[in-house]
Amino acid sequence: MAVDEKIVKRIAHLARMQLDDTDVAPMMHELNGILGWIEQLEEVETGTIPAMTSVVSQKLKWRADVVNQPELTGGARQAAVLANAADAQFGFFSVPKVIE
Amino acid sequence: MNDSLLTDLSIADMQTGLRARQFTAVELAKAHIKAVADARVLNAFIVETPDIALAQAKAADEALAAGTARPLAGIPLGIKDLFCTKGVQTTAASKILEGFVPQYEATVSANLFRDGAVMLGKLNMDQFAMGSSNETSAYGNVLNPFRNSEGKALVPGGSSGGSAAAVAAGIVAGATGTDTGGSIRQPAAFTGIAGIKPTYGRCSRWGIVAFASSLDQAGPMARDVRDCAILLNSMCSYDEKDSTSINQPVPDYTAALTGDIRGLRIGIPREYRVDGMPVEIDALWQKGIDWLSAAGATIVDVSLPHTKYALPTYYIVAPAECSSNLARYDGVRYGLRVSPKHGSLSDMYEATRATGFGKEVRKRIMIGTYVLSAGYYDAYYIKAQKVRALIAQDFDRAFEHCDVILTPTAPSAAFPLGAKSADPIAMYLNDVFTVPASLAGLPAMSVPAGVDSGGLPLGLHLIGKALDEETVLKVGHVVEQAAGRLAKPLKWWLHS
């Protein structure tokens, strides 16, 4: 399943990565090289095999339903959360205007 | 003791020397800080942290004097730049994270520092751990301390290339690495050191910049098997902050290094005899078989029939997870932001990501986005996860007949910079022997076992049953003993 330029542009948009017009064709060739090689998987008979969902046989654990567990990944850390933001204002992340 | 003697010691000997007060942790740290500075031409570090190292070394000396020292007190390590280190820039060797200063510490590095380790700095790597030659870093290529017979610069392997180069060059005693498809083991083989990727879930992934979450696993890299075991003791832990962390007791891995492998069954997978494998690699593999047989192990032929499909499977699963994980870099919460004038939020996302990610990373995000997109998900991603289940099943069946599997680590020795840049699939083939164990989540280790005709290091690779790092280390230790003393890199950077 080779990709064409239109699909490449669509994928770039889905991935939110700007792709200049001059870069579309080279990217298409790169992707097709890899996709062509990957196609050998079609030879493998996988009829009733369940797709792997967990690499080690264990149940995903649930954490306690507790808000702001400070020892784990809880809240009340506004300054630390904002410390690396490109633009933090009034205790929020700031982004270009979304609504005109 | 003079500086070069201090930097050549194994971690085990450093532990003994520190406890016997033959030298102090501060002396050890100073010798390493100087060695790091003298070896800058290797480009193994992105950030050096001499002040942190000296402060930690001072604390280690105090603990040693008070008799409260933890096992790694005073041991100078390098930390791969994929581990979030509190207060120290962490970039994953990318521009998009340039200047990112984590507000928290990764569990694995926190474990090492809890046990007294000293941090010399953050080690260079392939960008977001995507690469097998350390040529995708936004901070420049890392050089292998070994050069070929013509004196040409060689790659150190990847993605943990800075870790491997620093350990081999004797400028750190050990380093953390991470392994998604071979990123600890292949660079270890290329630089003549030891490195182990434990079972998926043994080391917490919390605080490690994510690439492919179902494959990523941290592990130690050091100059010998015992040093890897010592570091692994500290790095492994159950962690509530990682939902895939394994809640099992961590044994003392050094206790496994008994040298006694009598009666162990060593599996030799026939499918690993790949076309075009250099004669020297094949010969080294046979040597390994002979060594283990002479040490009293039983050699058994095993079959891993889906081996040839492991790499294409990996190049669906890993990019798919990468495209999902790397969606977080959007210029909002951390890292680079590129805002086109009068641009929308979407324009900001697109410009930031196009500017901040390197070429290989962008390519993998594109592949991952494609294989997960509507209409292609079943044909690519689900298909790959089914083949992955078959690959894991191959190992289950093989381990009914053997206790550990022996293969070469990589299909070649280290190659010159740029040699494989034009052909991505040739580059991906570096990981042909390491990727299958990653897909199955199994512990696996590379041990320095010999050199090629040009004097370049070659490694042998051991794959164990899930949670059986001990057998992997035990057999790796026997391989290392049988291989004897191998050439160390000439420290040419001191004279250039």
Describe this structure in words.
The complex is a heterodimer of chains A (100) and B (496). Chain A has a domain at 5-42: Histone, subunit A, CATH 1.10.20. Chain A contains three helices and two strands; from the N terminus they run αααββ. Chain A has helices at residues 5-14, 21-38, 78-82; strands at residues 88-89, 92-93. Chain A has a two-stranded antiparallel ribbon with strand order 1-2. Chain A is flat. The model of chain A has no long low-confidence stretch (mean pLDDT 89). Chain B is an alpha/beta fold and 496 residues long. Chain B has a domain at 12-260 and 433-494: Amidase signature (AS) domain (Amidase signature (AS) enzymes). Chain B is globular. The mean pLDDT of chain B is 96. At the A-B interface, α1 and α2 of A face α10, α11, α12 and α13 of B.
Mean pLDDT of chain B: 96
The quaternary state of the protein chains shown equals heterodimer
Order of helices and strands of chain A: HHHEE
Number of strands of chain A: 2
The low-confidence parts of chain A are none
* Top-tier CATH class of the domain at 12-260 and 433-494 in chain B: Alpha Beta
Task: List low-confidence stretches of chain B.
Answer: none
CATH level-3 fold name of the domain at 5-42 in chain A:
Histone, subunit A
Radius of gyration of chain B, CA atoms, in whole angstroms = 21 Å
Gap from first CA to last CA of chain A: 41 Å
Query: Terminal Cα separation of chain B, in Å?
Result: 25 Å
Into which percentage range does the β-strand content of chain B fall?
5-15%
> What is the count of helical runs of chain B?
16
Shape of chain A: flat
- CATH class wording of the domain at 5-42 in chain A: Mainly Alpha
Q: Name the biggest interface.
A: A-B, 54 and 72 residues
Quantity of strands of chain B, as a count:
11
By secondary-structure content and strand pairing, the structural class of chain B works out as alpha/beta
CATH level-four homologous superfamily name of the domain at 12-260 and 433-494 in chain B: Amidase signature (AS) domain
Broad structural category of chain A: mainly alpha
Report the order of strands and helices of chain B.
HHHEHEHEHEHEEHEHEHHHHEHHEEH
